[in-house]
Amino acid sequence: SRPSYGDRDRDRSGDRGASASASEERGGFQRREERAPQPAAAEAEQPAYLELPDDIDLSDLDDDIRAELRTLVRMKAQLVGGHLVMAGRLIDEDPEQAYKHARTAQQLAPRLAATREALGLTAYLSDRYAEALAELRAARRITGSNHQWAVMADCERGLGRPEKALEMAQAPEAKELDKGTQVELRIVAAGARRDLGQVDAAVAMLQGADLTPAQIEPWTARLRYAYADALLEAEREAEAREWFARAAEADSDGITDAEHRIATLDGVVFDEEEDAEDADEVEDVHGADLEEDELDDDEDDDDLEDAYDEDDEDDEAFDDEDDDEDDGEPDDSSRVERVERVELSAEELESGAEDEEQ
To answer: Does the model's pTM come out above 0.85?
Structure first.
């Protein structure tokens, strides 16, 4: 059986429609141009010190991995095993952090197949294809097992070498794989055909009795999804919708987004509903802010009104003192009126002078 790194065996959906579970090699039928660039192994960043939570349980690891850990001194085994558990635990929710834990484990025990494979798988799932390929090859040299052959072929696709992925699909090692891994390798090879623009060849490669097995297999949903996706690219939309529906029927664990693809083909738009929910949340937040602002404004108005009242009282007291000191001197208002009358008289005189000239 393939090794389990903690909770790594949980399925996750992704754009490829295949399971991203590292224990079931994810078939790669995402188009090459949709893939993100990845750093080379030599340029991979060095992770900072990573703390381990208190609830680490090495029994989450497979027996063969624990057997490898027993070759280490006890304290190092606990540390390496803890990082392997965390790599599996975080791979769904935080692939980047899972990669850092796996890399830490590999740096602590680089001669263990478990650490090399864990780093290879987390690097693959975080789109570091060069590093993933190097680590998975190292694990294969240690164990002699080809059970990650499909992942390695998909790494070749990720590095822009679809021809190499097709060679691996035809290699003698491919014939020794178990049924599930052979199906995954077909999905990878079909993706490589699509990378080369050979869409009809990709469709043909995915056809066969495996699409309609007597009972649903773990890989059935992913194979049907890959077939539907290839049909859609071949502009056979009606058939594509049918096989997306069949993929959804086989996908009890939700490892693909087949139902979403069906809704998209049917013209269902999800963004508007999500935007409406976001708008309601924003409105609620703004409403709460407005209420607080209104309360603050009322308090500010009261403060200002009190301040103005105090200023008026001070002004009145100041004016009374001025009146006592002025002893009959005209106030400012009378001066303003007198100035206005003088200005008006000047304008009248100017106007009269113009009339005389005319």
So the answer is: no
